[in-house]
């Protein structure tokens, strides 16, 4: 983290580690999940097909079986923790207190590296960027990929008002606090709306 940022706020290194009790609880729920075997009759005649009245039962069972029998969260944790994660407190105007914000801050060794803010959408997370961040670093981009407030490991505001404008202001503040007066930004879905707002408000 740039020294200029450290004088303003104090990001701390963060390691993702979900407690065993949480994983045991999830495993129990998956093992005892019950899926109704009946689909809506003639749902296939609807243009949406078997998804016309909700999630297709067959697909739901496939997901359930994968999560219960094959998915390895610890393996995912190890992959995520290969990237540098941080937590920092940012002031929340609508809550009038500081919120814990999680972000990945992966620096490039390029002397003229371009700071790049990557913003995920809904129902997404920073996991979307797991493979692309090393490629961006190699291409000369220093990447900051925050978990939007209320997503992933970022604390959520507890009062109304956390809209696109709020998110844009908080993430712009994060970049400023990290010492990046100018930076590029990319987002998808809600992240695209947030980065568009940043570009308009802070050109």
Automatic annotation (TrEMBL):
Example of a GO MF term: epoxide hydrolase activity
Q: Extract the SUPFAM superfamilies matched here.
A: alpha/beta-Hydrolases
Sorted keywords for this record are: Aromatic hydrocarbons catabolism, Hydrolase
GO biological process terms, alphabetically, are: epoxide metabolic process
**Where do the Epoxide hydrolase N-terminal domain residues begin and end?**
13-129
Extract the Gene3D superfamilies matched here: alpha/beta hydrolase
**The keyword S-adenosyl-L-methionine is assigned to this record:** no
Highest rank taxon of the organism: Eukaryota
Family label: Belongs to the peptidase S33 family.
Name used for this protein in its record? Epoxide hydrolase N-terminal domain-containing protein
Q: Whose protein is this, by species?
A: Spumella elongata
């Amino acid at each position: 983290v740039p020294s200029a940022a450290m004088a303003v706020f104090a990001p701390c290194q963060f390691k993702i580690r979900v407690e065993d009790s949480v994983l045991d609880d999830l495993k129990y729920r998956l093992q005892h999940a019950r899926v109704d075997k009946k689909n809506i009759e003639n749902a296939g005649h609807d243009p949406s097909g078997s998804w016309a009245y909700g999630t297709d039962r067959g697909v739901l069972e496939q997901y359930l079986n994968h999560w219960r029998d094959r998915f390895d969260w610890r393996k995912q944790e190890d992959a995520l923790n290969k990237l540098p994660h941080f937590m920092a407190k940012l002031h929340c105007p609508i809550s009038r207190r500081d919120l814990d914000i999680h972000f990945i801050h992966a620096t490039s060794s390029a002397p003229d590296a371009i700071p790049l803010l990557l913003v995920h959408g809904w129902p997404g997370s920073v996991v979307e960027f797991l493979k692309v961040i090393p490629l961006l670093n190699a291409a000369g981009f220093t990447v900051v990929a925050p978990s939007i407030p209320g997503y992933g490991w970022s604390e959520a505001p507890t009062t109304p008002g956390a809209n696109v404008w709020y998110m844009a202001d908080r993430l712009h503040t994060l970049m400023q606090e990290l010492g990046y007066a100018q930076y590029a930004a990319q987002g998808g879905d809600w992240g695209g709306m947030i980065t568009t707002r940043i570009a308009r408000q802070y050109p």
